[in-house]
What we know:
The complex is a heterodimer. Chain A is 27% helix and 30% strand. Chain A is α/β, with parallel strands linked by helices. In chain A, the strands form two sheets. A four-stranded mixed β-sheet of chain A has the order 2-1-4-6, with no helix packed on it. Chain A has a four-stranded mixed β-sheet with strand order 3-8-7-5, with no helix packed on it. In chain A, strand 1 and strand 2 form a beta hairpin. Residues 18-29 of chain A have low confidence and may be disordered. In chain B, 80% of the residues lie in helices and 0% in strands.
Amino acid sequence: MRKLIAVLGIRIYLLFPILFLFSCSSPNKKSPADQTEMKEQIHNVDTVTIQLMKFNPEALNVNAGDTVVWINKGLVPHTIKSYQDNKFYSDTLQPGKTWTLVAKDSAVYYCSIHPTMQGKLVLK
Amino acid sequence: MNPLTKSAICLFLSAGLLSFPASAQKSQKLTDPEIASVAVTANKIDIDYAKIAIKKSKNTQVVDFAKTMAKDHGAVIDQAVALVTKLGVTPKDNATSKSLNAQAVKTRKMLNSKSGKAFDKAYVDNEVAYHTAVIGAVENVLIPDATNKELHDLLVSAVPLFKAHLEHAKMIQKSLEK
C-alpha cells in the first residue's frame, strides 16, 4: 500500500511541471518575440506605377514598415523625391526600372525632373 | 475629323504666337511615314531650342528645364525611330515637316539674338507656345490620321509628356515674371 502511494506521489510530482509548460504555451498568449514576428509577417508590399506622367495611385495608404515599390512604365526617366526635409530621394529611375522604400512616415513627394508630377504616402 | 474642323484648328493655332504649320491641319490625311517624319522633326526642333538655352542661359531653372527637354524629346525620338525601324517604315519628308523646319529657323534666329533675362523670357514663352501648338496638332491631326496601332499608341502616350512639359514651362514663366 505504502509503495502504491509513493508511486502515485512521484507521478503527480512529475505531472505538474508538464502541465505548467503546456499552460505557458497556450496559443492565445504569444511571447513578445512571437508578436514581433507576427507584425513583420503582415507587412505589405504596395506598388506605385509611373505611367502617362502620373504616379498611380496618386495617394497610397500604407502601414509603417510596408514596402513601396515604384515602377517606371513611362517613356522617360523620373525621380521620386520627398518634399519634406529630403526624407527620401530615388535618384534617376530609368524606364522599366523599379525603386523600393520601406515606409516610415507620411510623405508628399514629386518627380524632380517633372515637378508637376506629385504623389503621397499616407500612414494609416 | 472633317476638313472644316481641321481648318478651324489651323485658324486657332495660327492665332497663337507660334503656329503649327497650316499644312499640319490640311484636309488631306497624313500617311504613317509622313506622321513619323512630323513627329521626329517636331521633337528635334525642341531639342535644338534646348541646346541654345543650355548654352546661353544663366538661370538654373531655365537650364534644368532645357536639359529635361533635350533628354525627354530625345527619348521620344528614340522610341519613334525604334518603332519605324521595326515596322519597316521610312519617315517621309512632307510639307508639314518642311514648314516646321522653316519656322524653327526663324525661332532659333530670334533666340540667338537675345541674351540675359530677355533670352530666358523668349525661350520659355516659346516653349509654352510651341508645346501648346504641338499638343493640338498631335491630338487633332496626327493621332486621328495614324493608321498603324503602335504608331497611334506611341503618339497617345507622348501627349501627357508634352502636357507635363507645358505645365512645367508655365511654372517657370510665372516665376520669371516675379
